[in-house]
Structure formats: structure tokens, C-alpha cells
Amino acid sequence: MFLILFSLPVLAYGQQIFSGSCSEYANTTMPNFDINKYSGRWYEIYRYNNLIEMNGDCTVIDVLKVDNNTFNVDMKLKLSTPIKMHMKAYLIDPSKHDAKLKLRIPRIPELNYWIIDTDYETYTIEWSCTDFLNINLQMLWVLARTPQIDENIVGTVKRIMKEKNLGKRGMRISGNDPENCKCIYNKC
């Protein structure tokens, strides 16, 4: 029991802790998910703080389809210096055509990673949740195809998150200042 109590802060660092199980939250994902349309560059707009990104800004994610089930995810962000991370994602059950994925991140256990909603052209809402005893640990991201997001799209995203019982706690606004991020978004 001591080990479990000692491990909880480590497991939860930078994730939001909620009571109950993951199934009480976003229990649906994007239907008829299309990897081809999803591939390309995404810029982080909002997120729950998490261990992977810490206090980073300028987060950009490049998604490249490998096959009908798998894609590469290359993330760049700026802490005090630019950081790059290569990840792999794959569909849990490709026959369902939903957006339930597993994400492989170096030195971190494989994560459930769900694309809750996307229009493929302007925004995507992505969520990860892990059950632990009678609580769950959540990460949530809002990404866009451009470093800034239109206020009408923000309204749509907030409505969808409310419908899915997500985003109840404050999300961190990503720092996407063009001058500060130029060496992340482009080669310097």
C-alpha cells in the first residue's frame, strides 16, 4: 500500500486527477477516422500541463502516415532550448474506424490516446486517460493547423469538450508567439 501511495504523485505529475474511471468522461471518439486527412502539421493551442511537455511552449506536432494503422508523431517544443521527441501511434482496432489509439513515447508506458473530435482542417481535440484505483489521470490537448486559432473555432471546441465532459479544469494556453517560436516552427 505504501508503494501505491508513494507512486501516485509521480504518476500524476502534470496530469489532471479526477475521481471515478475514464469511462465516465469522453467515451466516444471521432467516427470514421481518416489517417490521411489527419496527417500533417498541428500546433498546440491549449493543454492540461503534463510531464511530457512540462512548461514548454511553441509545441508543434508533425504527423506522418506509415500505413493504414500506424503513424509517426514528431513533436518539437521549446523549454529553455528546443526539444524534439519521436513517437509512434497506432489504431487499437482498425476494423472499427474510430480514433482510439495507443501512443508509444520513449521511456514512458504506452498511453491510450483518443482523438475526440477533429474537422481535419482547423482543430483537433485529443485526450489520454489512465485509470488508477478509484481515480483517473487525464491529459487533454487542443491543436490547430495554425499557431493561432479563430475565436469561432474556440467556441466549437469548448462546446464539444463540454458535451464530452472534458476540460472542466483550466487548460494552459500554449505560448505561440511567432518571434519566440520561429526556430521551432522553421529551421533557423
UniProtKB/TrEMBL annotation:
The keyword Disulfide bond applies. Coiled coil: none annotated. Transmembrane segments: none annotated. It holds the Pfam family Lipocalin_2. The gene is LOC108557111. It comes from Nicrophorus vespilloides. Keywords: Disulfide bond. Belongs to the calycin superfamily. Lipocalin family. Residues 33-164 form the Lipocalin/cytosolic fatty-acid binding domain. This is Apolipoprotein D-like isoform X2.
